[in-house]
Amino acid sequence: MKKTMYFLLAILFIATGIKAQDIITLTNGTQIQSKVLDITPGEVKYKDFNNPDGPTNSILKSTVASIQYANGVRTLFNEATGDKARSGNFVRGNRSDEYKSSGNKEYVRKPGHKGGLNAWYFGVNIDLGVSNVSTSDPTYSSSANTYSAVNFLATYMFNPHVGIQFGLGDEVYNYDVDYNANSGSPGAYTYSLTYFTIPVRAVYFSNSKERVGFYAMAGLDFSVLGVARDNYQNNLSTYYSPSLVSPYISCGVEFRNRNDRVVWMIGPFYRTSLNNIYSADATNYLTAGNSATINSVGISLSTMRKYGRSRR
Asked: Backbone phi, then psi, for 112, in 5-degree steps?
């Protein structure tokens, strides 16, 4: 009877000991019997299960595939990064990364960065720079002057890297023109052109997980003339094209906040009008058969904020 009791106690002791251990499975298939102490952003710290009073060991979290805890909960890691694979209720207890289960259902945390999958962003774009008129007409010369634009944009991200944006805004060109003596109206004039714009652009982000990355933006801006005046406040709208189609290119650095809900972008831009900026009536100022375009360069500043939750 005593032998049977001792035998049962031994089995119970062994079973309890096996259950009390945490099993760390590495990406190469190796299993480590351990007592997990802490999980940091880069490491997993543990003690050898067979030597609980020994030194604390640590391994790179990127080499860990999963951890089977003594309480039966299993945590899966991304083999490439060591991040948690799924999302759910996260609790902090004796271990820094411990997950709880409800019945047979296991909960695992989402990665912190959502990557902008199928997400809407709304924001504003400001361009500041210089512009000039480029023409083949020999009757006048122009000097570069100021250019500014403000656009309110909506951006839809198809995936963490590629999206499309469109919006409404306005742009203002200011430039000086010196007409030669043989032109229809010799002398020096300052012109101010205001256009209402509808930008349609594709946007690309190089990363989906880091705080800092690279962006590129390209598209067409469709502009409708609002007001055209000279330095004498004369309305010259009839002399200018009622609409412009302008290719737009910008690239630079993008910054994200911790939860990826806000993105900032800064970089140079370039734009040029495809069609002639003058209407048919402009022959009073330009020699017939010549055309002109507006070119602008400068710095683009943008910010956009995510609306709602990402769809997956």
From this structure: -65, -35
